[in-house]
Amino acid sequence: MTKKVNIMTDTNAAIVNEAISERIKLYRSQKKMSLDELSRRAGVSKGMLVEIEGCRANPSIALLCRLASSMGVSVADFVNVAGKPAVHLIDASDIPVLWKGEKGGSARLLAGTSGPDMVELWQWILHPGETFESPGHPEGTSELLHVCEGKLTLILSEETYVIMKGCSAVARTDAPHAYTNDGNEVAVFTMTVSERAR
Fold this sequence. Notes:
Blueprint: H1 11-30, H2 35-42, H3 46-53, H4 61-71, H5 75-78, E1 97-100, E2 106-112, E3 118-126, E4 131-134, E5 142-149, E6 151-156, E7 159-164, E8 168-172, E9 177-180, E10 187-195
Antiparallel strand pairs: 1-2, 2-3, 3-10, 4-9, 5-8, 5-10, 6-7, 6-9
């Protein structure tokens, strides 16, 4: 079952949801993919796809990853921060927030390449006590993490790793994993995701 999560009410969130809705419809049309076919490939209910395309749902990052992978594009393509030929400059005001934590944390997709082989650059902020969980990405996906402030706890396949300020990690994230801030300070980290087409 796919849940609607992180429903945001600010204007920026509405603009991001509208862009996601329009681009999913565009890519589905370009690939001549029916809602039923996309539903089957992504493992997402047709009803949820109708909600997303109708701009009535705010899909989770994990759901966007599954949809993008199923269509051979990247999440960056959905929110228009994907690189184009030569150079694609992205204004600060165009960088979308794709996750908001209960205590003020956020995840911003800073830039990314077009799919299906894609690389994404993220900035994450986790306030003390916040956690983000992922069911895992497609096989072979790797993430590069660098902690700029605080400390980050990575839980991957039931193993726990603590990444301190100024330190980095490389993780294969095709298994369920989570990022949590169990410290007393705000954790700020950058993440690069590398995913290859299946």
